[in-house]
């Protein structure tokens, strides 16, 4: 008889991560909170320094309408390899690691961020609550 696949008791179990506490898979509430913090910071920076006007009428904003997303991407690429996560991740007690543990390097944050700004890869999760952007980059978002 073929074996029936066993479901994970918790996200990250099959990857060898603990169920709770430091090193466990970061849950959706923290992830969404970090996203809001990072995007708010990016919008403030874009408004203050790059001419982004969030109250411009459609068609008036031009290329500056993309400035918050550009700043968001730069924050991700800059801070993941240097402090282990974006400012939002760190504020909410998370870090980005390789699945095997350790520093994600320089190219993985770039790949992860490019897929993250496309949105769809970030909202398709597996049983371990890893988005496609993390799977492709070989990273995982864990509690610090």
UniProtKB/TrEMBL annotation:
Q: Which UniProt keywords apply?
A: Cell membrane, Membrane, Transmembrane, Transmembrane helix
Where does this chain mainly localize? membrane
The record describes its membrane topology as: Multi-pass membrane protein
What name does the UniProt record give this protein? Answer: RDD family protein
What InterPro entries is this protein classified in?
Pra-immunoreactive (IPR051791), RDD (IPR010432), UCP021697 (IPR016795)
Name its cellular compartments.
Cell membrane
The residues covered by the RDD domain are 26-138
Chain segments annotated as transmembrane: 32-52, 64-84
């Amino acid at each position: 008889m073929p074996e029936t696949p066993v479901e994970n008791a918790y996200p990250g179990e099959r990857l060898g991560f603990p169920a709770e506490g430091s090193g466990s898979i970061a849950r959706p509430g923290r992830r969404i909170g970090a996203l809001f913090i990072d995007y708010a910071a990016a919008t403030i920076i874009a408004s203050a320094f790059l001419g982004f006007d969030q109250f411009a009428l459609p068609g008036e904003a031009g290329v500056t309408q993309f400035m918050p997303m550009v700043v968001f991407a730069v924050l991700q690429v800059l801070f993941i390899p240097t402090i282990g996560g974006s400012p939002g991740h760190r504020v909410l007690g998370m870090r980005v690691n390789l699945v095997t543990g350790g520093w994600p390097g320089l190219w993985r944050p770039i790949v992860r961020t490019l897929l993250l700004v496309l949105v769809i890869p970030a909202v398709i999760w597996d049983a371990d609550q890893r988005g496609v952007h993390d799977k492709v980059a070989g990273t995982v978002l864990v509690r610090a």
